[in-house]
Amino acid sequence: MTREQQLSGSRKPLTPLEIYNRLERSNCGRCLLPSCLAFAAAVVAGTKKPSDCPFLSPSAVAEISQALQPRFSSPVQEQDGSLDQLQEKLATIDLSTVAPRIGGTYANGLLTINSLGKDFHVDQRGRMTSRCHIIPWVRMPLLSYVINPTHQQPTGNWISFRELEGGLDWQGLFHSRCENPLRKLADANPGLLSDLVELFNARSEDLFAADIALVLHPLPHIPLLIAYQAPEDDLESKLTILFDRCCATNLPIKSIFTLCSGLVRMFARIARQHG
Predict the structure, then answer these.
(1) Of 58, 118, 247, 253, which one has the greatest count of Cβ atoms within 10 A?
(2) Cα–Cα–Cα angle for 78, 218, 75, nearest 5°?
(3) Who has greater pLDDT, 2 or 187?
(4) Residue 116: domain span
(5) Is 267 found in the same domain as 176?
């Protein structure tokens, strides 16, 4: 089977590593990104096109573009399509049985799940209600969490994003969209991370060699830990987002990425609002 047949005929989504293996890997920067791996991740995410790499041959560009065609459709259409699929699957699930297993409750035909201290209610058709505004980065991962066939209680064992199943393929994008922006946000707003304790039921931990270590629960059994070390003298700040080992069992890696990138965008809005 040729490389083109593999890319075109595969039912699995392309990963950044598959794109990266087709590149020159010189990190020339002409795509305006710091590395070829960052470019590959951006192509998979749809923020860069294969043709933005000056070293890809026309045939390679066409091959990758064809394999990525579904990703270049309207984001709204793609999102709606995924939501429809999630809602169809959810309609086949007994929510009353699922609720206690995933850390939720069930009453009057509604599954209730707490996310960062806020209750979200889901009915059998996948319709979601809450007192707060419901945005896609909450809706999609929450429904994925409900229908996920496997589930594990938190273990207390913290691991990096790249150690999660499938995380290595998304590591470059996760760092550029989640960890690095949140680090810069914390640098510019020294009190922001501490404010999360009150705003989102976060828990301070005395873990690792960090100035601030906070545990958040975007979903009941999806604990994540933000460890931040402030800049000092000529040393840059450091920020790492760690995950309980159970996270990879309880949620697909793409949904974990969506959840974290949404959190960072929300924190940025909070920082702007509070000046």
Answers:
(1) 247
(2) 10
(3) 187
(4) 75-147
(5) yes
What's the order of all strands across the beta sheet hosting 128-130?
105-107, 110-115, 118-122, 128-130
Give 5-51 pLDDT, tens digit per residue. 444 444 456 788 888 888 999 999 888 888 898 888 888 877 788 88
Write out pLDDT tens, residues 70-105.
544 433 333 444 778 888 999 999 999 999 999 999
In a domain, 200, yes or no: yes
CB 256 within 8 A of CB 160: no
Tokens of 199: 């705003």
**Cβ proximity of 224 and 243 under 8 Å:** yes
pTM for this structure? 0.72
Count up the domains in the chain and report the number.
Answer: 3
Q: Are residues 164 and 261 in the same domain?
A: yes
Residue 214 CA to its chain's centroid (Å): 18
In a domain, 152, yes or no: no
Instruction: Kindly tell me the sign of the dihedral angle through the C-alpha atoms of 12, 14, 20, 24.
Output: positive
Same domain, 68 and 82: no
Tokens of 190: 């020294």
* β pairing state of 158-160 and 238-244: antiparallel
Domain match, 25 and 58 both: yes
DSSP-assigned letters across all residues of 68-113: TGGGGS-HHHHHHHHHHHHHHHHTTS-HHHHHHHTT-EEETTEEEE
Same domain, 37 and 108: no
Q: Dihedral (C-alpha) 43, 46, 47, 49: value to the nearest 10 degrees?
A: 50
H-run or E-run covering 139: helix 136-147
